[in-house]
């Protein structure tokens, strides 16, 4: 059941913090719609966007063959601490493991550094008497009476979800399953998450953090998905629904209900899949994707048409985005950095009179000041409007009318006045609603404030890319920047200049890029198991049995979406020298293993270790810790598009005054409708290219060529 196979029509819906995007693809045609996210009932925005795009295509709900959905709802619930009232059942003596974390400081120089509080308060971290050894053997049998005593405690606390995380349960889940059986009899309506199901791996804190995060968002996500399923049926949709996962694969509604933590980065994952496709189409082996939407900006490195993958990441970093200041999750994920820098990011002046932008966002309600929906604080979108970069009449396809004067007033009040700029426009509170929608020349104070906001947010995004590059061992200057999302095409040139990148690609449909990426994703699933194996005593039959069980579990999930299609299997093992604390991941062949394969494990590990550290360590034995198996109904990468020669510059239908920060003044810039540009069109910057879901600003330092696929390829001019 590959997207496009069922009756040829696939609908992708991406719910973000500010906008909900819909893309309908049938054959070679594509229709898109962008609406404001309807918090706190996101299913309404889902249906609104779906019905709007169907109307544009003159189709009925029953015509759709497949729906693919991704969302940031789980991420936002964790970041905003709006999940379920949660209890954690843990092993006696391990009550504070979740709060002790790694027992280290992520910021050594700050005496007032605070760790993120656990999702479960201490009085709801409840111990039971039991103990397993690291090999899964029972040291202390489960005291079922200690479990029974917790039932009234959970009932009195009004607990909405339960996480069970017993020590060493990855090696033997029997005690966790028995605890769940006992609690389930008394609390049948309370969802229960077992760490041996959610994250059956070593490292107690990571496993508990992942399991509590799953339980924290499970009632929210299960309720949302159930309501959505009912609403789709009522509207006449009769097709399957698949959910994007953080790994870039797709899974079923049932799996998503059980393991919603795997959806935490599902929206951004779609963007990385889009970048992978574009890189292949353009023959770009080294790229960096830049996805800037209404709430966040996401940056990901791709090499040889593949995004970086990881087995763990942090969500909700709250201390200057420093590693260690968030909640660790052990799930398969596309490795990227995500920061609070989007069109809705709020600008402010702090106590030291420094201009800051984000991470707080105005979201969709009330939204930026220019939305004229009650927002009074200035955002990046307000700055772009005041600088003339956004045409108020075409924003979001004309479905969101903007109020430029309200944007200018908010910038003066919250940025210009605190910084001592000339306040020559009324405050946002006094701005006339009747005048707010008039696109009048902005005051110098408003324009200067807007320019500062744009520069700060561009530097924040560029700095995040630099730090991510350093952490990943990747250089930036030789890469191509692939920009998409509602705000990225407006900021791509300046971000690329800051990073020393000389080429930018803005794909067709950039404003709804993540949703388009959903259409290119694979139906896939991955499982991981921790099983300790000392390579000196390699038991190939035990390893073969382990992989056979993992294959059966994974295939049961993938077949629900892939049917009888051929599947691609991938195996890895995480290994280390005996005595080390962390592992190196090694790829394994897909076959049964024999005793002689101990040498294969050794040679594969040493190659990977030498690549990372430049050497191996002699006379140390190896141990394998965690094993993973993934199955996917793979999609072939597209062929590279043919090159086109630049043709004569087409005539612009109009011009628009856009503020040039380098000149400190407005300048008339040619404006083109993207739909009217044919392959080969060559436009020297500066130029503004507009479309329904976004606008692309090509500054004076860049030229743009429309390639054979209709993508905008920006190249840096040779500077004198």
Task: Please characterize this protein's 3D structure.
- There is one protein chain.
- With 720 residues, the protein is an alpha/beta fold.
- 31% of the residues lie in helices and 26% in strands.
- It contains 18 helices and 35 strands.
- Helix 10 packs across helix 16, helix 11 crosses helix 12 and helix 11 crosses helix 14.
The CATH class designation of the domain at 79-221 is Alpha Beta
CATH architecture of the domain at 79-221, by name, is: 3-Layer(aba) Sandwich
Q: Which strand-content bin applies to the residues?
A: 25-35%
Looking at the structure, the CATH topology of the domain at 79-221 is Dna Topoisomerase Vi A Subunit, Chain: A, domain 2
Q: How many alpha or pi helices? A: 18
The strand count comes to 35
How much is the average pLDDT?
89
As a percent range, the share of helical residues equals 25-40%
